[in-house]
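Supplementary Methods, section 5.1.

A reviewer requested that the exact input to the structure prediction be made available. We therefore reproduce it here, unchanged from the version used in the analyses.
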Amino acid sequence: MSNFFDIFSYLENDNKDIIKSQTSAEATIYKAIVEKTERESVNCVINEIKSFIQSSDNSRRSFEELYEILCNKPYSIRKGIIPILIAISLKDFSDNVILYYMNREIEFNSDNLIKINDNPDKYYIYTEKGTTEKIKFIADLAKIFDIELESNILRNNVQVVSETLKKWILSFPRIIRESNYDGEYEINKNYIIVKNNLLRPDLNNNEFIFSTIKDIFETNNYDVVCAELTEMKNFFETFLNTYRDDIISKTKDIIQNKYKGSLATLLNEWYDENNIKISK
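The structure derived from this sequence is encoded token-by-token as follows.
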């Protein structure tokens, strides 16, 4: 099965030169399948797979259903070449197709397509519409969080944005990571829910970006979501300054109400008055 990787690389990059040797096993498979997609027999199979992909629009479908169709009459296709046929069929859908292993979203790559062969009943496909809106939304999120997107493939950019948001929230100290909306400081409940989702180790990137966030802010408008996330970002990034100023103010009120000097000066005077020695 390892001979298939060069073929998958070609399908992903449209670069036939990736297949180095014209006499290799992958070259033979390439000539037998990929170069003959226009033939009625191969094209018929491709159309069958595309119909299956289209049927997963807003509804997850098990690959077991597809394998039942392809492995039996009238097709009777050997399982070994099905991943290549799926890859060919997915080229037109790759930007808005999500693969799942059980309930976990997985990366769309050759390795996972090959793994489907072993347990097709455990793998699922899900196709979403609204790709244009999603592309704009991802670009807007990238702008808000200063993310450089190097790919033209939506699914790759979704992963980059989601992973960057996770790293962003993890970069904050514990007081923010462990904060709650019913604590001492008033924090928007929705901000806390977004934060807690980003801290989940089993977060599904696509589901979180395109569905969960909209549910949290109770809107179907991506522009509204962007506005909310901009405010959330500003809030968390200025929270430490607000928290510091609040601690300083409360400390001054306890020691000497309405004191106008610095906290350091006030504490030194208070230490002297109470004969408290601070070790250096």
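The longest helix spans residues 222-255. These observations are discussed further in the main text.
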